Amino acid sequence: MSELSLNGRCLCGGVTFQATLEKREMGVCHCSMCRRWSGGAFMVAECAGDALKIADESQLGVYKSSEWGERCFCKSCGSTLFWRMQDHSMAAISIQAFDDPSQFDFVQEIFVDEQPANYTFANKTKRMTSQEFLEAFASGQGT
Ligand SMILES: [Zn+2]
Ligand SMILES: [Zn+2]
Predict the structure, then answer these.
(1) Which ligand is nearest to the CA of 14?
(2) 71-121 pLDDT, tens digit each
(3) Structural domain tally of the chain?
(4) Would the pTM of this model clear 0.85, i.e. be above it?
(5) E-assigned strand segments in the chain
(6) What is the domain-level CATH number for residue 70?
(7) Span from the CA of 3 to the centroid of ligand 2 (angstroms)
(8) Residue 67 falls inside a structural domain
(9) What is the extent of the structural domain holding 52?
(10) With 32 labelled, which of 58, 63, 121, 132 sits at a CA distance of 20 to 30 A?
């Protein structure tokens, strides 16, 4: 397995981090919470929780958005940075926080049943409804 170590940051640079990714792949979440929070379809690269190293947590805002998830952002500039499990077992990092978002293969879209009808990505991806995704996630084979 070839690991990929990337540096990311928020808009103002108050939060910087290093993420070691197992795959150079990107997924998109169309759920209403991700869209409202990120201001778009949320494009992420997946990272094991212990493979995400944040340089200075004092500038990191954390909002618990569900019983198990939390959303992390910069307290100064408001940049959307990552969603992660509250137990820090995994994180979904905004690919926009990296210098070159084009390096990721766009492979998956989730919560497609919550996708607004006025846009569609042209990429051929694996598209999963919220139910399909949550079932896969619960059985440990999801993203
Ligand atoms: Zn910032
Ligand atoms: Zn979502």
Answers:
(1) 1
(2) 999 999 999 999 999 999 999 999 999 999 999 999 999 999 999 999 999
(3) 1
(4) yes
(5) 4-9, 16-21, 25-29, 42-48, 52-54, 60-64, 69-74, 80-85, 90-94, 105-110, 126-128
(6) 2.170.150.70
(7) 25
(8) yes
(9) 4-138
(10) 58
